[in-house]
């Protein structure tokens, strides 16, 4: 039961959507849609532990830059397949190109997302279309399109040899994994007027559970990480003004770091997380359980 085997992702093929930029990249304006990602740190976590990672987002130059940086880190490798998820034909092209390169996909991290903030009386119809399409509908689309490769990985069992060393039960096949990046805004009611975002993340959390039931029968797990406040460009101005207050409201007394979310993904993607299915892991330092009175 050595940690080196239990948490290993070496040799796994991973795809991280929106995996080309840093935690929560966001435009300064809160009245326009902005692409959010949670990581190259997710990508970096897998790369540093020997996985082969495919990065996809609509920004081709960002994908290429991220791959250059990640490949310099190793020992895993990074590969780019840019795609605009707002266009269904682009999603299909992504799946087709990936299938031409890889027969199996061991871990899919659905990390791409969008946000839109505006006052209630001014909140536009277009915000709902944009945010729900990327944050919810495309999670299903991409997962569905890549299910043949996920099933192939689940059927083969990526870590059979390592699992034998861990005393795995007879017939054990390491399942493929779907990891959905959610938000505490989908668990509680946020103060910010980001109506579509909150609703989309609540929907994502439940979609993940529904997928856990149906994909579990195919030896593919589905889980969600509901992220709380993290150091990010999006949070920069807020933290400059309110960091002490925000940290004071979190039982652990700090903002989340890149290693926190990368570690959670490595757990869910490794043998250690092989029996976790349909879970929502709240990654927020305890902010959701703090006393309200």
Protein model, in words:
By secondary structure, this protein is α/β, with parallel strands linked by helices. Helices cover 42% and strands 15% of the residues. It has helices at 3-6, 41-48, 60-73, 88-101, 125-145, 147-156, 160-165, 195-216, 236-248, 258-269, and strands at 13-17, 34-36, 52-56, 77-80, 107-110, 113-115, 176-183, 220-227, 280-283. The strands form two sheets. It has a seven-stranded parallel beta sheet with strand order 4-3-1-5-7-8-9, sandwiched between helices. Helix 3 (60-73) links the parallel strand 3 (52-56) and strand 4. The model is unreliable at 23-39 and 158-163 (pLDDT under 50).
Give keywords.
293 residues, alpha/beta, seven-stranded parallel β-sheet, two-stranded antiparallel ribbon, 10 helices
Task: Summarize, please.
The chain is an alpha/beta fold and 293 residues long. The protein has ten helices and nine strands.
DSSP, total strands: 9
Mean pLDDT: 87
Q: Secondary-structure element sequence?
A: HEEHEHEHEEHHHEHEHHE
Structural class by secondary-structure content: alpha/beta
- Low-confidence runs of at least 5 consecutive residues: 23-39, 158-163
The percent range for helix content is: 40-55%
How far the N terminus sits from the C terminus, by CA atoms, comes to 43 Å
Rounded Rg: 18 Å
Largest sheet: 7 strands, parallel
- Give the strand order, joined by hyphens, for the main sheet: 4-3-1-5-7-8-9
Shape: globular
Beta-strand percentage? 15-25%
Put simply, the count of helices is 10
């Amino acid at each position: 039961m050595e940690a080196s085997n239990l948490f290993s992702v070496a040799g796994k093929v991973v795809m991280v959507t929106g995996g080309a930029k840093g935690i929560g990249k966001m435009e300064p304006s809160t009245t326009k849609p902005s692409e959010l990602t949670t990581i190259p740190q997710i990508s970096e976590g897998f790369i540093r532990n020997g996985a082969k990672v495919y990065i996809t987002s609509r920004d081709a130059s960002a994908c290429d830059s991220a791959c250059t940086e990640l490949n310099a880190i190793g020992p895993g490798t990074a590969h780019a397949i840019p795609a605009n998820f707002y266009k269904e034909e682009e999603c299909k092209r992504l799946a087709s190109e990936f299938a031409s390169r890889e027969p199996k996909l061991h871990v899919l991290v659905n990390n791409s997302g969008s946000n839109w903030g505006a006052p209630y009386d001014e909140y536009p119809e277009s915000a709902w279309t944009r945010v729900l399409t990327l944050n919810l509908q495309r999670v299903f689309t991409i997962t569905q399109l890549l299910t043949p490769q996920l099933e192939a990985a689940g059927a083969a069992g990526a870590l059979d040899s390592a699992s034998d060393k861990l005393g795995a039960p007879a017939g054990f096949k390491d399942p493929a994994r779907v990891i959905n990046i959610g938000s505490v805004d989908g668990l509680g009611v946020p103060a910010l007027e980001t109506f579509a975002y909150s609703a989309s993340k609540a929907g994502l959390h439940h979609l993940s559970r529904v997928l856990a039931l149906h994909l579990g029968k195919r030896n593919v797990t589905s889980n969600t990480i509901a992220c709380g406040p993290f150091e990010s460009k999006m949070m920069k101005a807020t933290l400059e003004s309110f960091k002490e207050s925000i940290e004071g409201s979190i039982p652990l007394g700090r903002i989340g770091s890149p290693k926190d979310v990368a570690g959670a993904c490595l757990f869910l993607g490794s043998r250690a997380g092989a029996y976790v299915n349909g879970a929502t892991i709240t990654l927020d330092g305890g902010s959701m359980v703090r006393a309200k009175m």
